[in-house]
Design goal:
Elements: E1 5-6, E2 14-18, E3 22-24, E4 39-40, E5 47-48, E6 67-71, E7 88-93, E8 99-102, E9 127-138, E10 146-154, E11 160-169, E12 182-188, E13 203-208, E14 218-229, E15 231-235, E16 239-243, E17 246-251, E18 258-264, E19 269-272, E20 277-278, E21 284-289, E22 295-303, E23 312-320, E24 323-324, H1 345-351
Parallel strand pairs: 11-19
Antiparallel strand pairs: 1-24, 2-15, 2-23, 3-14, 4-6, 5-8, 6-7, 7-14, 8-13, 9-12, 9-14, 10-11, 10-13, 16-17, 17-21, 18-19, 18-20, 18-22, 22-23
Length: 366
């Protein structure tokens, strides 16, 4: 995160703990279609982001080959992913702007007109949570590579408008193994009647936001879940305190619950701070060194264990104007691609170790 000046303007702000979420069906949520015996570049129900003009297919892989699905290896094999929702998952290359999306008017590889199969809307009075199983580090991916999970709507001109997003950052700490999916979430707070997205169709986008300097390798994706919930009166406080040259973010915990801290400078893009942490019944805190940021907002996502409602709660705290704060963790920024002509050799080498259709290149085992 870029440094900028800030001070503590508010010590506490809470959002309610949501009630049990109502599951919303996402077509081909676990990438089981079409069935494949190995790898396929076809993905049912998901539309791929169009090829940008800067991408040169003549010097490497076709744009279409950068997203596809693959069959998991048999349980017990060294590269078998142990927690897929089914037998297949998707791969997505860590190359700028590679992505796929799904909304009311999206199409896929076998359709030219929308089927409207995904017909969920942002309903006033409900909050929404997108959860995606992700595995990073594939194919020699470099630390710092980023992937965005986005909930959006389309405006009157048909343009995608982001409602909420989460940026996933590759690191060995977040993804210590290549055989287990880790859940990441995006949350839209309770929809108000005045929100521009109220009543609009929900869109889901999974897109690489990596820079050209870090491109290469691939993400594995699975089990895309969307839920809606209404809130009750329970809340979880998050407090901020400045001591010397440090800012401390803290919150109470409950044994059995899992807590994930996120932060944002603008309420548009949320950044994940480290891996989820298990509650112990004692307060939990994270400390940041003071350095610049014009404003920061924090929230804590709380996941309850199965059988208790698997609820999600949010607490938001605002930091703004006179001391400074910056996370010590890797902090990606939105990326505007620059045309690589030709693609850097280093990036090409990383791509060579990624999953590809057998017709293009022998797939390297994970």
């Amino acid at each position: 995160m870029k440094a900028a000046w800030i001070s503590l303007a508010a010590l506490l702000a809470c959002a309610p703990l949501s009630a049990r979420g109502q599951s919303i069906a996402v077509p081909n949520y676990s990438f089981e279609l079409p069935a494949t015996g190995y790898v396929s570049t076809n993905v049912n129900s998901w539309q791929k982001v169009p090829k940008p003009s800067w991408y040169q297919e003549s010097s490497g892989f076709t744009w279409d080959q950068l997203i596809g699905i693959f069959l998991n290896t048999a349980p017990g094999q060294s590269d078998s992913i142990d927690n897929l929702a089914g037998n297949q998952a998707a791969y997505l290359f860590a190359v700028p702007q590679v992505g796929m999306f799904q909304d009311y008017n999206s199409i896929d590889w076998q359709t030219t007109t929308p089927t409207h199969a995904f017909n969920a809307t942002y309903t006033v009075g409900k909050a929404y949570t997108l959860t995606v199983g992700i595995n990073g580090g594939g194919g020699g991916m470099l630390d710092g590579a980023t992937l965005a999970l986005i909930l959006y709507y389309r405006d009157a001109g048909g343009n995608m408008v982001t409602v909420a997003s989460t940026t996933v950052v590759q690191s060995a700490a977040v993804f210590p193994t290549h055989t287990h999916m880790t859940d990441f979430t995006v949350t839209v707070p309770t929809v108000r009647a005045t929100d521009p997205w109220a009543g609009k169709n929900i869109g889901i986008q999974l897109v690489s936001t990596v820079s050209t300097a870090l491109q290469g390798g691939y993400w594995d994706l699975d089990n895309v879940r969307l839920s809606a919930s209404t809130s009750n009166s329970t809340s979880i406080p998050t407090t901020l305190a400045v001591s010397g040259s440090n800012l401390t973010v803290s919150w109470p915990t409950v044994t059995g619950n899992t807590y994930q801290l996120l932060y944002t400078p603008d309420f548009q893009t949320w950044f994940i701070d480290g891996p989820p942490a298990a509650g112990t019944g004692s307060p939990m805190s994270v400390q940041y060194p003071l350095s610049g940021q014009s404003q920061l907002f924090f929230k804590v996502q709380v996941t309850q264990p199965a059988g208790s409602g698997s609820s999600l709660s949010l607490s938001n705290a605002l930091v703004t104007s006179s001391a400074t704060v910056a996370p010590a963790k890797a902090t990606p920024a939105k990326f505007t691609p620059v045309k690589p002509t030709p693609k850097p050799a280093a990036a090409s080498n990383h791509l060579q170790s990624s999953k590809l259709p057998a017709s293009a290149l022998q797939i390297k085992q994970r």
